[in-house]
Specification:
With 154 residues, this protein is mostly beta strands. The chain has one domain (9-147): Pnp Oxidase, Chain A (Roll), CATH 2.30.110. The chain is built from three helices and eight strands, in the order βαββββαββαβ. The protein has helices at residues 13-20, 58-63, 98-105; strands at residues 9-10, 25-32, 35-42, 44-46, 49-54, 69-77, 82-94, 119-134. Strands 1, 2, 3, 4, 5, 6, 7 and 8 form an eight-stranded antiparallel beta sheet that branches. The radius of gyration is 19 Å and the shape is globular.
Length: 154
């Protein structure tokens, strides 16, 4: 997770996990047929992995394929005017063993949509990265109209 911004701070893995525990919604990136796709999902941290529940469909089929997956979770800390972003890359696997299923049933997993969400999926990370950075004052991005370059055709 490189950045050209010297004020951005790379986070240690334990800092990433601590931040992941403060949120419950992320975006899962999967490979579907011949293109990437992204799905919002509710998740819970469970012993160094991420668990989510879902129903059958594109997201689950793609997640459980042989292709790797990624989860991104972001946050904003208003008092400090700082934002953070954590990305987990790895593989997803269905939770099928009864003992493991019993352990995940009590996780705080609350999907936003109604419907059958009886499949539990675990994202097992191979790489966890994150960064924290100050949020710049929006006035920095205001450009006077006189400074805007026009295209050559105008």
């Amino acid at each position: 997770m490189g950045s050209d911004d010297p004020s951005a701070k790379e986070l240690a893995v334990n800092e990433c996990w601590a931040l992941l525990r403060t949120e419950s919604v992320g975006r899962l990136a999967v490979w579907v047929d011949d293109h990437p796709d992204i799905f919002p999902l509710n998740y819970a941290v469970d012993h160094g992995t991420i668990v989510f529940r879902s129903g059958r469909g594109t997201k689950v089929s793609a997640a459980l394929s042989d292709a790797p997956v990624a989860l991104e979770v972001d946050g904003y800390e208003a008092p400090a005017h700082e934002a953070w972003s954590v990305v987990i890359k790895g593989r997803a696997e269905g939770i099928l063993e009864i003992d493991e299923l019993m352990d995940t049933v009590d996780l705080p997993l609350f999907p936003w949509q109604k419907g059958a969400k009886n499949l539990f999926i675990r994202l097992v990370p191979t790489l966890v990265t994150g960064r924290r950075f100050p949020v710049v004052d929006p006035a920095v991005w205001r450009t006077p109209l006189s400074n805007v370059r026009r295209s050559p055709s105008e």
